[in-house]
């Protein structure tokens, strides 16, 4: 398989593992890269020192390309970027911020830059800022989310129309059929998060992984829209948030309830009652915890089969 | 083209025009049916007498099958069903209610029954109730919407897993590529609303049609969740709703603001400031008002091309 994304990253399959807080350290990223996809370290939950350690361990664990996802909203971005440049990481995904701020410096150092967007305007800005590819992420995605609530099905064709950049679809994708559907809508590749959170190599707490496997359709919801929209499992903490929101709570009220460290508490420490449990709607499709390499293999196998079905059977089902 | 849905309805293409309030009378339904799709009358905005007239006019305008969409939340459902049975309409889509209530009577009269769902549980209930096919509608759809906010990309594979019934995907679909993507996700057919609202034969007010053409991505939003979730264009009326909701307004407060006849005011009478303007996210993909038959033709042409692209080019773009 060979297209603009596999060439850009020098990988076998147009499949990116999302760089997620508390879940995607060197074990997961290297496993995905070794399987022929692109693994990403999630810097959003790492101090610069820990990020540096994960980069070294990831290099030791794979000879294949990998990258780092850097959410631009955190305070230590500058130091994280220093380490990324120093350690000569070849690929950086930036998110939750302005692509114009870091792209020029990263490009000067020969780094491939990808930026995550949730609307057309930001996609156009990416092109103007010189990024190499775009991730367009729909409303169904887990974790932080755009304000417009545009879904993957609607967003991908719109971004495809608006820019010529290589396009990676994210949000709602966990299978080979989903991958093919995203390609049909105009994507060159897909980014998959939730299914890799539930992988053996993910650093998510085992109790959180089990919770994902048990999550039914409708089991997640977008919360904290007045602070920063985030998709969470509807656990007791979520219920408290929702009640406050129904009563018209302000952003400050919600920040007070949120406090600090809720995501770590839920996702990394496994407190399923009081923690934030960030996951996508597609958790409802995930039925087991598997090795990341096996996930990559089965997605690509299903993708190939679906492609043949579309043509030979006329209809895929 | 031949599959379970084309056989069930005796139509040429697995493409259904959604039965929508204030937009889909006999002109639109007959135009879609004449073009080889399935046209639906939208009974939700018709008195039983007016529905009877539209059925007679639709019969006169097409020899092809057509149907009626009956939202089960309105007070005159019983009389509407009487007329549908009396006039021997062959196909009924029910929505916004329990499929167990009307399906047995309709089936006794030899009517093909389809029910609209937004989650897996309701899909299973449809199968138990003896309906002939399911419409699964995602969060991105216009108008009334499910409470779980599950998107088309996530919902279709989940419903496909849960039932063996023929499955029609709805929400976010306006093009041939969208149609193919929905098929890849597991649908046998698609239901398209927004693009037909912006057709020449639609009874929507010309000002509303023009507004759809101008709607950008992010131009719609789900509102009135405490009453009944509905996707609207973000016009001045929507802004008032949103402000009340942000302040924690109760369902009663919102009903008071809503009053009566808002949808008619906006969609049928063209008051773009004070009316409810129900449309899907995919409005952002719609760039002109066209004849309904031409819409059907161009969607099917794009669908065929996309299928060939998937196979011969390996990648669709």
What can be said about this structure in brief?
The structure is a homodimer of 317-residue chains. Chain A has 317 residues and is an alpha/beta fold.
Characterise this structure.
- Two copies of one chain form a homodimer.
- With 317 residues, chain A is of the alpha/beta class.
- Chain A has two domains: 4-203 and 287-312, TIM Barrel (Alpha-Beta Barrel), CATH 3.20.20; 206-282, no CATH class.
- Chain A is 44% helix and 15% strand.
- Chain A contains 14 helices and eleven strands.
- Chain A has helices at 4-9, 26-34, 48-61, 77-86, 99-108, 120-129, 152-162, 176-184, 194-197, 206-214, 236-246, 251-258, 262-268, 292-312; strands at 15-17, 39-42, 66-71, 91-95, 112-117, 133-137, 143-144, 167-170, 189-192, 220-223, 230-233.
- In chain A, strands 1-9-8-6-5-4-3-2 form an eight-stranded parallel sheet.
- In chain A, helix 3 links the parallel strand 2 and strand 3 (66-71).
- In chain A, helix 2 packs parallel to helix 3 (48-61), helix 3 (48-61) packs parallel to helix 4 and helix 5 (99-108) runs parallel beside helix 6 (120-129).
- The first copy, chain A, is globular.
- The first copy, chain A, starts with a helix and ends in a 5-residue tail after the last helix.
- The model of chain A has no long low-confidence stretch (mean pLDDT 96).
- Chains A and B meet through helix 7, helix 8 and helix 14 of A and helix 7, helix 8 and helix 14 of B.
């Amino acid at each position: 398989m060979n297209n603009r994304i596999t060439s850009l990253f020098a990988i076998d399959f147009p499949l990116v593992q999302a760089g997620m807080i508390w879940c995607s350290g060197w074990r997961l990223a290297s496993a995905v890269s070794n399987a022929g996809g692109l693994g990403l370290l999630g810097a959003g939950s790492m101090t610069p020192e820990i990020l540096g350690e994960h980069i070294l361990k990831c290099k030791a664990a794979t000879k294949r390309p990998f990258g780092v996802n850097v959410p631009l909203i955190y305070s230590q971005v500058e130091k994280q970027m220093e380490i990324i440049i120093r350690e000569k990481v070849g690929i950086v995904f930036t998110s939750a911020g302005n692509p114009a701020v870091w792209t020029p410096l990263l490009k000067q150092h020969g780094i491939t830059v990808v930026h995550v967007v949730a609307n057309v305007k930001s996609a156009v800005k990416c092109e103007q800022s010189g990024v190499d590819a775009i991730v367009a992420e729909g409303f169904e995605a887990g974790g932080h989310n755009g304000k417009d609530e545009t879904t993957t099905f609607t967003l991908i064709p719109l971004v495809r129309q608006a820019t010529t950049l290589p396009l990676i679809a994210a949000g709602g994708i966990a299978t080979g059929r989903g991958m093919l559907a995203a390609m049909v809508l105009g994507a060159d590749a897909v980014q998959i998060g939730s299914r890799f959170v539930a992988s053996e190599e993910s650093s998510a707490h085992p109790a959180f992984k089990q919770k994902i496997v048990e999550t039914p359709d409708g089991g997640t919801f977008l919360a904290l829209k007045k602070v920063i929209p985030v998709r969470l499992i509807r656990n007791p903490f979520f219920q408290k948030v929702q009640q406050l929101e129904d009563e018209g709570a302000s952003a400050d009220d919600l920040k007070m309830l949120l406090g600090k460290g809720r995501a770590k508490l839920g996702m990394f420490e496994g407190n399923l009652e009081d923690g934030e449990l960030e996951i996508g709607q597609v958790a409802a499709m995930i039925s087991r915890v598997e090795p990341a390499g096996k996930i990559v293999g089965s997605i690509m196998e299903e993708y190939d089969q679906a492609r043949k079905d579309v043509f030979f059977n006329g209809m895929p089902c």
